[in-house]
Amino acid sequence: MAASYIKNRGKDCLRYNLDERDRDLAAFFHYMGLAAKKAAPGRKKPLPSLTPEYPPGIPAFTKRYFENLYARLGKPFVIVFDNYHHVPRDSVFHTAICRGLEELPDEIRCIVISRDAPPLEMSRMKMNNTIRMVGWQDIAFTLNETKELARLMQKSFPTARLKEIHRKTQGWISGILLLLGEIKGSHLKNYSLKGYRFKEFFDYFTSELMRNTDSATRRFLLNTWVFPEFTPLMAEKLTGIKDSDKIIQELHRKNCFIELLNQSRPTYRYHNLFRDFLASESGKTLSEEELEALCYKAAVLLEDEGRIDDAAALYTRSGMWENLSQLVLNHAGAFLDQGRRRTVQEWLDRFPHKFIYNNPRLSYWNGMCRIFYSPNDARQLLEEAYHAFYREKDMEWRLLTWAAIVDSYIFEFKEFKALDFWLEEINGLDRDRLKSLPAEIDVRVTGSMLVAFLYRNPDSDILPFIARKAGDMVYKCPDIYRKITLSTRLILYYSCTGDIASAEILVNYLKPEIKKGLTRPASIILWKMVESVYYRLKAEPENAQRSAGEGLETGRKAGIHIFDFLLLAQIAYAMLSAGRLDETERILKKAEAALNKSRLNDLARYYYLMACLYSRKDNLPLAAKYAEEALDLAENSGITYQIGLNLIGSSHILFKTGDMKKAVEYLSRAEGIAAGMRSDYLLYECHCINAWFSYKRRNYSKGNEHLKKAFTLGHNKGYINLNWWASPSVKAFLCEKAFEAGIETEYAAYLVKKRHLLPQNPLNCTGHWPWPVKVYTLGGFRVFRNGAILLDSGKAQKKALDLLKFIISAGGRDVDHDLIMDNLWPNADGDRANWSFRTTLKRLRNLLGNKEALVIHEGRISLDDKYFWIDLWVLENLIAGEVEEARKRNFKGVTEIGEKILDLYKGDFLEGEADGLLPIIRKRARLKLKLIHIVEEIGNHYENSENFHKAVLWYEKGLELDEISEGFYQRLMLCYSNLGNRSKAVELYRQCKEVLETATGLAPSAETRVVYQSIVSSAR
């Protein structure tokens, strides 16, 4: 009926015959993928396999799988699930099918053929009327249809007899055909079909059939029943009957319960009840030895055809454990790669316990079936196998099992100290033995060795050898998925040792490989994690966040959540690196929800990130608490690098809390770990923090020593990030010290630009700090962008720079744009002035090379101090500092700042620039008055202290500021007089008189003349 429906409507069809194997969902998805490939051969990308990382995300995987399946099938299309009743009722298969049917698009129909009622899982679909039931009553023949069938078969029966046939068969078409075509009239009196059991009915029918067939056909039937499905060639190889093809065609022509499954490559199968009968008859006819030989031969043929499950069933049925053992060894690896763990486990469960115990290879695969879901149970089985291989001196299997045991600890991610025993096991091996392993085993063993030594014995001299070997393997490995797994472990190694260059080479090599087609979501997620770690090493937080986010989205769609915490942790690292602390806190809340607290190392990482966050927020009590927890967990889990990282972070926090002794102790331990494991990155961090400690304790020579080591290492290795517990101010502070001491200034400048660092003390960075934009306004106007001067060539560019001058003169922050328009475009109406302002602002942003350098908020414009160094701002900060020191009566501080002010002041504010703009004129005048006041204050202090030499120096500086200031002339004349140099005092009076007459046309004031007369009189 289903075939007629599809044929009459001209629809394409995918037919899937279900059997007991489909209770393993991974097997169903695998075979369904093969069927889909035949139905849509144009699609090269295969459907995903249900690999171990999916549970408990099977619902999401199922949804994605069926969406993908429906997308590749033509429309309209029909999917037929035949023999649904063969799948056990307790299988999760039914839930998965229901989930898949819920995604069915309108243009695709699904037909489910079963002898049983729909499973309970379909109850909701029945209630919602999304499925329609067609029972046997719906397709039973009416009396008239029974009469018409008899007429077509050219059978002449009285109406009463036809009524009797219809009544006894209850309209069942197979029963009607049977009675009309085979059973003679007398039989109707002896057999009642009402309530007739199918098995009895088939026994009777097939017995009649067997008696009416020739010996070759009977032999054919009694042999080929062992095949669940078979081709004529398979039947010929099994039976030795050359006319097998003809026998099959004749059986099919007579409708003798044999079904054609595939037209393009003719494949047949017997009706299940008929096959059961043939099996029973074969058991009566053949001896046990003959039956075992038949099953063995059929199993071999099935295995050759790729029907591995069917071959395993025959080996089991016949108790051929050696053959089943070889089948497991041949195919278990491929099945596990496809996610069909349950199928392999079922094979192994069929063996007698003693057989498994005496075969370590089977114990190995028994462990591998459990390694992802129950690492501890798997490890017990693997350890038994390992010791057996050790006794047998089977080096290849011993190493393969060793790698699996190591991986069980990695999957558990809990406690790694137990790896020490296994490292001892492999440490004594001759390296030449490791070089001669088969490629597939070598890849697995090398990847596991890399992680084991990195975690627990990173100072071993074998680790660099393993890393180099793994690096070579990545480029030679033909399997993209093994390549990704090995690359993930290599990137981990490069990250811990600080080899950013090798990480970059590897990532750039892999990118085009990935684009060729990575279909397994778990591998895509791993790759995204690798990308995120790489971008984190490169201090590209936005890219690191994007890659980890893509990994999370892939996991969400696929229902894979075991990597969620690690991906969220990568985002948290990226946000900390970017200084986005509120976002970091939000991400860590998500990470906590995804955290499996039994995985000690994940828990340690979470507490470490929390310590980093609160350290950056200067909440030192919470930071110290989390840091202590993180360090304890790291030491319990036993990963050496993680311990070193936590020691450095803890030492930084302890130093900030004032516990100097413990901070130094922790940092010393971290240095030992860094040196032992040859981690340039940890050494870099240790030297940076040691330099910071030393400077803060005023040990500048020691600080310079550590800073030189750190920045030389950082320059050579391309390090950009100081770890996440340290605020940007620490890195900025170290860069300031580098500029002051002339230590790796090129590298320091690179760090400043890459990390957008701001100096802690801009006054000390005037000459060296690589500001994106430097503006000089004292004694003229000059603008430098990235070290190159900007010239006001062209009217538009000049107007843009005039806008910058005005913003600076108005304070540089929150300058009202109406004030700007009134001054720069006084004669323009409102709309034109606003248009001119917007246009000029855009030009200025382009000129400065960064639109974020100028910020507009609610009609006010500001210059972002992350991008600008302006001498005026430094001068105003110095003036404010001088006022504060004067208030505190700290004359030494006043003098030091005063000297810096005069060094910076190269001339009047915007001298010769924009003289028509009142705000600029006022700013210029106010600044000069403030400076004159400072000079007077310092000069008066020295004069009152009778330090006339220094007073003279300051008063002369005052004259440089204002050459017509009679006050400075007066004070200088008196100072020189007190020094006994009255001739110089007289000369100064004459100079004052000449300057005043030239500049103002006025004579010296009465006060100046009185001072002059007093000096002259005293000289007489």
- Given the C-alpha coordinates, what overall shape results? elongated
- Give the structural class: mainly alpha
Radius of gyration: 44 Å
Distance between the termini: 140 Å
Oligomer: single chain
Strand content: under 5%
What is the number of E strands?
Answer: 12
Unreliable spans are: 183-198
Mean pLDDT: 86
Q: What profile does the largest beta sheet have?
A: 4 strands, mixed
Widest sheet: strand ordering: 8-7-6-12
Q: How many helical elements? A: 51
Helix fraction by DSSP (H/I, runs of at least 4): 55-70%
Can you describe this structure?
The protein is mainly α and 1020 residues long. It is 67% helix and 5% strand. It is built from 51 helices and 12 strands. The chain starts with a helix and ends with a helix. About 2% of the residues have low confidence.
Topology diagram in text:
Elements: H1 2-9, E1 12-17, H2 25-39, H3 58-72, E2 77-82, H4 93-102, E3 108-112, H5 123-127, H6 136-139, H7 143-152, H8 159-169, H9 173-181, H10 185-190, H11 198-211, H12 215-224, H13 232-239, H14 244-253, E4 258-262, E5 267-270, H15 272-285, H16 288-304, H17 308-317, H18 321-337, H19 341-350, H20 353-357, H21 360-370, H22 375-392, H23 395-412, H24 419-427, H25 431-435, H26 439-456, H27 462-476, H28 480-497, H29 500-515, H30 521-537, H31 541-558, H32 564-578, H33 581-593, H34 600-616, H35 620-637, H36 640-657, H37 660-676, H38 680-696, H39 700-717, H40 728-741, H41 745-755, E6 773-776, E7 782-785, E8 788-790, H42 795-809, E9 815-816, H43 817-824, H44 830-848, E10 854-857, E11 860-863, E12 868-870, H45 871-887, H46 891-904, H47 918-944, H48 948-961, H49 966-978, H50 982-999, H51 1006-1019
Parallel strand pairs: 1-2, 2-3, 6-12
Antiparallel strand pairs: 4-5, 6-7, 7-8, 9-11, 10-11
Helix pairs in contact: 3-4, 7-8, 16-17, 17-18, 18-19, 18-21, 19-21, 21-22, 22-23, 23-26, 26-27, 26-28, 27-28, 28-29, 28-30, 29-30, 30-31, 30-32, 31-32, 32-33, 32-34, 33-34, 34-35, 34-36, 35-36, 36-37, 36-38, 37-38, 38-39, 39-40, 40-41, 42-44, 43-44, 45-46, 46-47, 47-48, 48-49, 49-50, 49-51, 50-51
